[in-house]
Structures are given as C-alpha cells and as structure tokens.
Amino acid sequence: MAHRLNEARMAEARLKEKRDKREKEKATGVRGNMSMAKHIDTTASANHSVSALGFEYRQISAGRQAEHTRSYMRYHSNRSARWAAAFPNVPRFTGGAVDISQRLPKSSKLKRFCRKGIPIDLRPAVWMQISGAADKMKASPGKYEELATCSDDKYAEQILLDMHRTFPNNIHFRPDGCARQKQLHRVLVAYSNHNPGVGYCQGMNFLCGMLLLILDGNEEQTFWMFDGFISQLPPNMFAEDMKGIQAECSTFFAIMKEDYPELSAELEKRGALDVMPAIVVKWLINSYVDTVPEETVLRIWDALIYEDWKVLYRVGFAILLMAYRSGELMTHDAATILEFLSNIGWALYDVNAVFEVAFEEIDVKGKVRRARINRLRLANRT
Fold first, then answer.
1. What is the value of pTM for the model shown?
2. Closest CA to 120 of 164, 169, 77
3. Side-chain half-sphere of 288: how many Cα atoms within 13 Å?
C-alpha cells in the first residue's frame, strides 16, 4: 500500500512539473488556450484542408496549425523510432490487406506504448492483434462473405438510409452510391447478421466507416476489427430502446458530481446540465468520431482498443476539466455552453495535453475505474 502511495505522489509531482513547464513556455493550442475554439474556421472554404484519410476538416488559424504540425511530426517521428526498437516484428502497412501473421501479446509495455500513440503505418496491424480481430478472422475463413450476402437481414434498409449521412466531409464517401458506401453497407449488414442481439444502430456507421478507412477498404478485416471494437464498448451501448446509452450518460454525470463537485455545481447553476447529455451521448456513442480532429480520434482509439471503454470516460472528463480550468466555460449561459462544447473538440489538436489529464491525473488518482463505473451503471439501469 505504501509503495502504491509513493508511486501516486511521484506521478502527481511529475504532472505538476509538466504543468509548470507548459505555463512557462506559453505553449500554443489547447495547452495554452482552451478558447482556441474561437479560432476554428467553421465555414466552408475553397481552400479547406484534406487529411490523410480524406477528411475535410475545420482548422485553427494557419499559424497555430503550422506550429502544431511541426511539433506533432517531431513527436510522431520519435514514437516511430521507439516502436521500431521495442516491437521490431510488427509489420508496416502499405495498403491492401494487413499482415496479421505476427502475434503481439499484451503487456504493460505495449499498453504504455499504445497510450503514447501507435505510428500510422503500424496502427492497422497493432489494432488487428490487440482487438482479437486477427485470431477471430483466422478461425473463421469465409465467414464474412457468408454473412455479407445473407438476403434476409432486417437492418439492411436502415443501414442503406444511413449511408449518405456517413462522413459527408470525407472525399472517399462521396458521391452517394460510391464504392466506399457500398463496402460499408456490406460490412454493417454482415455484422448485424453476425450479432443479431445487437443488430444495427445509428452511430455504428461512423465507427465502422472509420475502420474501413484505416484498413484501406478491406471488408473482411474491417468486419472482424469492427466486431472487436464493439466488444470494447460499454455493454448495451447500441440497444434499440436507448436504455444502454442513457445509463452510460447518467453514470458519467454521477461520477462528475462525486469527483468534480465544483464543476458540476457551476454547470447546474447555469442550467447546462440539462443540455449537456446531448454532447456526452455523442462523445460516447461515436467514440469521439466527428467530435475531435482525426489524429486525436485515432490516439483515443489506440488506448480504447487496448484497454476498453473506461478510456471514453477519462477523455470526456479531461475535456471538461481543461475547459473548466481555462475559465471560459463558466462565462456563458446554457445555450452558449452547449455550442462551446460542441465546437471545443475541434480545438483538441494537442492530444498529448488531453492524455496528460486523462491518464496522468485522473488515472493516477484512481477515480475512473472499471469496477466503479460498472457499479454506477448497474444502479442507473434499475
């Protein structure tokens, strides 16, 4: 017990040291100014940027964007070198089918590396291994094609209706009826046949669509990866009666009230707690897709796929705490807070700052643990 207490104190000391350093450096972006949301360009532009996965995204000012890009590229280069040294057998992905021949056993070291980010060219192979998708695919050859071509799927029409709503800001999902939409439809139909107890629910199209982009349109691997991904999310998240996601939302606010009473009281005083469930539901059910920048989503998923759904809670609290500590969140009424939180995610380019709070502060204090969330979730379902 004493050993764990000393570790916690040392971790908190390191976190304080990092915060002091950031303040001295007056870093740009989210680290230095959560009001960066004001600098996001939410209007259409002929000069919009397109990401590596084909997303046209809202940007912060050109200067801030350039500084972030330079800083993160240095970080990514450093992490790539560390991954190559620590896990030299992980195959690099260059398109087509992901090489799943090399097993990657879970370990505390791998968990730490996933939290710090998986390099782009290693991400597909690592995800396929740590999610269990590779093993399931090897054990069931031909299963995907059988499920995808089943003609009596009751969700097929609803899935088809959601295709044009899936990533309209991504060049690979346009125009309606394009190849990526057809692939996504097949994978979702296959999954609804594979897991009829879950079937299909709106929101799954975004999760599966992101995986389809990461895996370069390989349907079979996307199917098994999606199956593994869903298993990492809270139980009954996609239940048709919505009771699952309602319980998650209630659990989220119960923890916030217990652990961050000042934040909760301020939001309640401004009437924001009545409108915030709309934000939290989107965060949880979409696993932050279409809420934060692409690379931030992928970094969140690196940790989520290894660890499971508790990561969604920790990231959500980190976002709220960063906004609250900036002071700006508490200067608005409920409607403006809702708009602020709807847009603030797009300012979260500095995912390392978010993870410092989520994993070095919240995690160290032991507040958002799986057992506690399960207990509160059960209470909120009764």
1. 0.86
2. 77
3. 28
